[in-house]
Amino acid sequence: MNITEIAFTCYPATDLAASRAFYENLIGLKPTQVHPMGEDGGWVEYEIGPHCFSIGKTDGWQPNPQGPSCGLEVEDFDKTVEELRAANVTITMGPMETPVCNMAMVLDPAGNTLIIHKRKPGHH
């Protein structure tokens, strides 16, 4: 097996409209593809550099705050944390500093863990 890249990361949504509002209006992602699925399901993709982050709602796929997480690199860590706090986003860990980064774990509207991250200079 030869894995060449991560094709996408996707988080399950319980309320697709609420998740879209969070990721688009608060986090600032721009949808690049929107695929309706069924009555209230669907799939939304957001390109971030060469990567794809997506959210989706379909039967049998439920969020889990203890499940995998995605780390989003931000330009201004402190400002981002302030904006999330002002929007009453639940912070489950941090903000904290490590030898290589600053990070905080937050919950999206469905209860998935999202990591807000900022590398320190010289680390990638």
Outline the structure in words.
The protein has one domain: 2,3-Dihydroxybiphenyl 1,2-Dioxygenase, domain 1. Helix content is 17%, strand content 41%. It contains two helices and eight strands. The chain has helices at residues 16-26, 77-86; strands spanning 9-12, 31-37, 41-48, 51-57, 70-73, 91-97, 101-107, 113-119. A four-stranded mixed sheet has the order 1-4-3-2, with helices on one face. A four-stranded mixed sheet has the order 5-8-7-6, with helices on one face. It is globular.
CA-CA gap between termini: 26 Å
CATH topology: 2,3-Dihydroxybiphenyl 1,2-Dioxygenase, domain 1
* H/E series: EHEEEEHEEE
Strand segment tally: 8
Sheet with most strands: 4 strands, mixed
Quick one: CATH superfamily?
Answer: 2,3-Dihydroxybiphenyl 1,2-Dioxygenase, domain 1
Side-by-side strand order of the widest sheet:
1-4-3-2
Low-confidence stretches: none
Radius of gyration of CA atoms, rounded to a whole number: 15 Å
Structurally, the number of domains stands at: 1
Q: Write the CATH architecture name.
A: Roll
What is the CATH top level name? Alpha Beta
Counting DSSP H or I runs of 4 or more residues, the number of helices is 2
Strand residues, percent: 35-45%
Write down the overall geometry. Answer: globular
How confident overall, as mean pLDDT?
A: 93
Q: Helix fraction? A: 10-25%
